[in-house]
Amino acid sequence: MINGISINYYLLLSAVLFIIGAVGVMARRNSIIIFMCIELMLNAVNLLLVAFSTLHGDASGQVFVFFIMAVAAAEVAVGLAILSMIYRNVKSIDTDLLSNLKN
Amino acid sequence: MKGLLIISGLGVLAMLAEIFRFKKLLLPIVLLGIVAAYAFNFMEWNNGFVISYFNNMIAFDKMGIAFSGIIIATAFFWFILANDYFEDETNVVDHFALVLFALVGALMLTSFKNMTTLFLGVEIMSIPLYVLAASQKKDLKSNEAGFKYLIMGSFASAFLLFGIALIYGSTGSFDIMEIRQHISAHTAELPTFFYVGVVMMLVAMCFKVSAAPFHFWAPDVYQGSPTLITALMSTIVKTAAFAAFMRLFMIGFAGVSELWTGILAVIIAISLVVANFSAAMQSNVKRMLAYSSISHAGFMLMVILANIRSNISVDAILYYSLAYSIGSIAAFGIVYNVTKGGDESFDAFNGLAKRNPGMALCMTVAMLSLAGIPVTSGFFAKYFVFTAMIGTSYKWLLILAVLTSAVGAYYYLKVIIAMYFKPQQNTEPVIVERSQVMVITLTSAIVIAIGVVPGIVAEMFRF
Question: What is the mean pLDDT of residues B83-92?
Fold first, then answer.
């Protein structure tokens, strides 16, 4: 229990956010939205870690969240750089155009 | 640990090379640094005691040191091979730094003790590779490879993290040993979401080692990336991901092995079948090698399965990683030179035996080794895996592995047939740099050497 709310609700909320993100990555065709969906998945994890950290009264879960935030920022920086490079070549960020690799 | 620090230092040094103008000296410095890292690694192996660093975040035990040794040795060969890749590029120093930082991540993965270092190792290794995969800016294929690698890589990382969060929630710790102790002490009272967490981490790690059915990114990424970066991915990255897989599941989750061994057996079976049959249908050599690496992933996972069931020593997987990495370096070195003209199909190899007999011979050795034909190290690598599997209840998997190996021989032999029996359209010999000839010859010789005396190498890794 955290502030009278059972941990199961936190778990459920994070799971729902995570699934929305995962479905978004697979279903959407716009690269920017795919990045947003990945961020959503990572933030679902952050929420869960903070909830568990409070539940256990242990700070290491919250420290882990900082690592995730830093790494997510680095990942998005690289991702947007690659995306702007693709945009320069094809003038679009639609992932359907990226299907040149086949046998 | 000293090896890890030296390579991190080299990465920082590489970034300074542009400012202080010692670009020309960078390759010799990096090679010297890697030799030094290997020497320190070797000394730590002989020391015999394990020191843990940063509150038990990382500790180089025998298994970690052995995997680090394989990774550092492969990196040494890779840097000599990549000599002219670095010369062509305008921003050489960035590429050096990125490869070195990826290497740091790989070394962290071999020896993590905590979920934090596992996650950071995966990311430190992957993020430079996303950039390297997309490093040919004007080439849309390279862009696409980088983009796909990034999306699939961060998708897998998100699964890994959700798994870590669930396991932290149920055990209250990120430390591998504490998780192991918690599992053995409270087996009955573990909540359901703990098992979900273990399965999610299994899926994420299968993404990272590119085992089917989570392999779909691998052929595209391997094909689109610059060939030498593909070589890096299929040797160093693969070995590091396996080291992490082994440590996580054989140490951390050994107590719940009934849960994941069944799933792992199915994953291995799918990997072997899908990879070998798809590889047989490819006409692009790099795609073929990508599928071949998926099937090798299946073989390496078999050792983990055998080990957890019957406590066989891990030297089989070390021998396999070494044989596979060295053989792949030789194969990719030749593929890089042969496909320089842009043609990446099997036809590029037509008549290579007449044009470059030496290269053709080395390619034959590498292909035979990957196929697992006797006298080469690949044969004994598979032999050790099969002997490890015999003692387990997964005999059906063993039979499947032998059958799919036979399919595997077909597509490796296709390259050899093209080189020796197909007529050549082009009589010009491929020009290969002297340093590359040296690496390719040396790695092919090692493939034969550790195949002739497999006992010595396997004994070397015993601890």
Answer: 69
First-last CA distance in chain B: 19
What distances in angstroms separate CA B374 from CA B223, B298, B318, B459, one per listed residue? 29, 20, 19, 20
**Angle between the N-to-C axes of helices B192-208 and B238-246, in degrees from 0 to 180, rounded to the nearest 10:** 160
Phi, psi of B313 (to 5 degrees): -60, 155
**Closest chain B CA to residue A78:** B131
Domains of chain A: 7-91 (1.10.287.3510)
For residues B319 and B325, give the distance between their C-alpha atoms in angstroms, rounded to a whole number. 10
Using DSSP, state whether A98 is helix, strand or coil.
coil
- Please state the domain count of chain B: 1
* Token pair recorded at residue B349: 């190899």
The C-alpha atoms of residue B454 and residue B383 are separated, in whole angstroms, by: 10
Q: Judge contact between B324 and B377, C-beta under 8 A.
A: no
Q: In terms of pTM, does the model score above 0.90?
A: yes
**Token pair in block for residue B50:** 């394990």
Q: Which residues of B touch A (CB under 8 A)?
A: 115-116, 119-120, 123, 127, 130-131, 134, 137-138, 140-141, 143-148, 150-151, 154-155, 157-158, 161-162, 164-166, 168-169, 172-174, 193, 219-220, 223-224, 281-284, 287
| DSSP per-residue letters across B197-254 | HHHHHHHHHHHHTT-TTS-THHHHHHHHS-HHHHHHIIIIIHHHHHHHHHIIIIIITG
CA angle B294, B299, B303 (to 5 degrees): 140
Range of the domain at B375: 2-460
Q: Looking at the partner chain, which of A22, A60, A90 has a beta carbon nearest the beta carbon of B140?
A: A90
Q: How many CB pairs under 8 A join A and B?
A: 125
Residue B115's pLDDT is 94
Residues 6+ apart with CB under 8 A from B51: B1, B59, B60
The residues, any chain, with a CB within 8 Å of residue A4's CB and separated by 6 or more, are none
Q: What is the pLDDT of residues B156-179, one digit of tens each?
A: 999 999 999 999 999 999 999 999
For residue B90, what pLDDT is reported?
A: 65
Which pLDDT band, with edges at 50, 70 and 90, does A19 fall under?
Answer: very high
Would you give the DSSP letter of residue B356? Answer: -
Of the candidates B165, B220, B282, which has its C-beta nearest A45's C-beta? B165
Express each pLDDT in B204-262 by its tens digit. 999 999 998 898 899 999 999 999 999 999 999 999 999 999 999 988 898 888 889 99
